[in-house]
């Protein structure tokens, strides 16, 4: 509302509402009326429009829309349609509601670039199946809708416009506002995951990231790429995906450096944490070696807590313990016991689950459910999650839940916590065998699940969705990675 009414009008309407209703009851419609009156006075809303008819479509129904933009053959006009965005569509849903919104449309183009005007240029009404926007540039120039993402909607384009955006990002990404760069990444990856856009386009969108230095764009990209990495982590194509991710990330890693500088701006610090945590997670050796070196210095001087910067502790601790063995793990455990700083203890507890030694992970799981171990009952969710999110520990954590459910429920005394742990452990399940294991688990523990049954059902449904995603996308992504030079280089005999 602040954007389509303007801040001045919005504040005016709110002030009038607060003054006018100071000593009487009010409901949502009263607020809408005051805002409408202010908007009509200031001419920021057409006389035949009200805030109520706009906002009721946003507050009285679920979700938000995706606007599909299909340009004409010459590019100078576009047909726009809207539908509710769903990452996963439920084919068996009984919901017959026709979801439509009043959508404030803003747009800019390659021939008349303006990312500062966030006032609606066109309104799409909830009663309109489609609208046409004219006066666009010719077909060889891109358009972008939802300037600075001031509207709460996603935008999907025809393939030609997507390819024009990819070309612009690769040639000079700074022509496009950073918020819209993040939007383009987020929308492309979400549409690909939802089956509404080819991963050939979505992955190509990300390639410009080798030149990107803004935190907001990188944070968006890495959050979206997590799902791909999770789905690929146990498949033969993971090596190619890992090379693709590192190819994008290494320039950012090199630019921020490993040394944390207290005088850096906050966004620079966030960017460094983002780059280092992901580079180390992907086993980039410079990152791993730096982490191990810092951790060893700390081991030599355990009373000096300033050796590792607070911003880098999570990454350094986890990486060094993963690269080390029993000695590093025992040191981390002793530091946990000795510390009386809550945040430090939590960081260490999580890092201890990063070890790649299976027997240590097994011992760690047993310690979590031992009152005498030093791990508090309420901290089990952190420790168990760290093991479950470890490639080596994931199966171990699943077997533990499956075989020790009764003991765990008696110890934790919370089926909500148990359900959360089960959802964490099964987050990357994507095979029919794993789905069958969950179904068998539900049958075997039917009388002991209680409120955690919902979590089991969610895990089964999510696994089914992951299986469908793998069936539809895995081969396409592997082919794209191979075609772009990320295939494994090994000899066949």
Automatic annotation (TrEMBL):
SUPFAM superfamilies: Metalloproteases ('zincins'), catalytic domain. GO terms for biological process: peptide catabolic process; proteolysis. Its EC number is 3.4.11.2. InterPro entries: ERAP1-like_C_dom, Peptidase_M1_aminopeptidases, Peptidase_M4/M1_CTD_sf. Residues 142-462 form the ERAP1-like C-terminal domain. It catalyses: Release of an N-terminal amino acid, Xaa-|-Yaa- from a peptide, amide or arylamide. Xaa is preferably Ala, but may be most amino acids including Pro (slow action). When a terminal hydrophobic residue is followed by a prolyl residue, the two may be released as an intact Xaa-Pro dipeptide. It comes from the Eukaryota. Signal peptide: none annotated. Belongs to the peptidase M1 family. This is Aminopeptidase N. It comes from Cherax quadricarinatus. The lineage of its organism: Eukaryota, Metazoa, Ecdysozoa, Arthropoda, Crustacea.
């Amino acid at each position: 509302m602040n954007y389509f009414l303007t801040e001045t009008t919005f504040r005016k309407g709110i002030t009038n509402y607060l003054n006018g209703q100071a000593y009487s009851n009010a409901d949502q419609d009263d607020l809408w009326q005051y805002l409408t009156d202010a908007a009509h006075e200031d001419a920021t809303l057409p006389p035949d429009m009200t805030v109520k008819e706009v906002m009721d479509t946003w507050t009285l129904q679920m979700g938000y829309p995706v606007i599909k933009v299909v340009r004409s053959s010459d590019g100078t006009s576009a047909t726009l349609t809207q539908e509710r965005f769903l990452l996963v569509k439920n084919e068996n849903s009984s919901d017959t509601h026709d979801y439509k919104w009043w959508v404030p449309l803003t747009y800019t183009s390659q021939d008349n670039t303006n990312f500062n005007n966030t006032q609606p240029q066109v309104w799409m009404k909830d009663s309109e199946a489609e609208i046409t926007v004219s006066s666009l540039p010719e077909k060889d120039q891109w358009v972008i809708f939802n300037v600075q993402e001031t509207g709460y909607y996603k935008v999907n384009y025809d393939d030609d416009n997507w390819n024009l955006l990819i070309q612009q990002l690769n040639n000079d990404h700074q022509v496009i506002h950073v918020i819209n760069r993040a939007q383009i990444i987020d929308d492309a990856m979400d549409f690909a995951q939802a089956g509404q856009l080819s991963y050939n386009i979505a992955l190509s969108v990300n390639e410009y990231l080798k030149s990107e230095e803004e935190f907001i764009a990188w944070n968006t990209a890495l959050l979206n790429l997590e799902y791909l990495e999770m789905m690929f982590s146990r498949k033969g194509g993971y090596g190619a995906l890992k090379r693709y991710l590192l190819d994008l990330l290494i320039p950012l890693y090199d630019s921020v450096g490993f040394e944390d500088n207290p005088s850096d701006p906050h966004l620079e610090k966030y960017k460094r944490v983002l780059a280092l945590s992901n580079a180390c997670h992907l086993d980039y050796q410079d990152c791993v070696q730096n982490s191990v070196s810092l951790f060893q210095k700390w081991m030599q001087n355990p009373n000096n807590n300033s050796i590792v910067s607070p911003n880098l502790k999570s990454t350094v601790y986890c990486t060094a313990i993963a690269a080390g063995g029993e000695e590093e793990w025992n040191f981390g455990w002793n530091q946990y016991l000795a510390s009386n700083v809550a945040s430090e203890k939590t960081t260490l507890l999580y890092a201890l689950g990063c070890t790649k030694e299976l027997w240590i992970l097994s011992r760690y799981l047993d310690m979590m459910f031992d009152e005498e171990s030093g791990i508090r009952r309420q901290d089990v969710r952190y420790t168990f999650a760290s093991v479950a999110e470890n490639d080596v520990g994931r199966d171990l954590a699943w077997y533990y839940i499956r075989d020790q459910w009764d003991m765990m429920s008696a110890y934790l005394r919370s089926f909500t916590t148990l359900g959360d742990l089960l959802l964490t452990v099964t987050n990357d399940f994507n095979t029919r065998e794993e789905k069958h294991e969950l179904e068998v688990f539900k049958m075997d523990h039917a009388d002991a699940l209680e409120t955690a049954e919902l979590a089991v059902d969610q895990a089964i449904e999510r696994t089914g969705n992951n299986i469908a995603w793998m069936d539809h996308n895995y081969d396409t992504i592997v082919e794209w990675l191979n075609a772009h030079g990320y295939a494994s280089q090994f000899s066949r005999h």
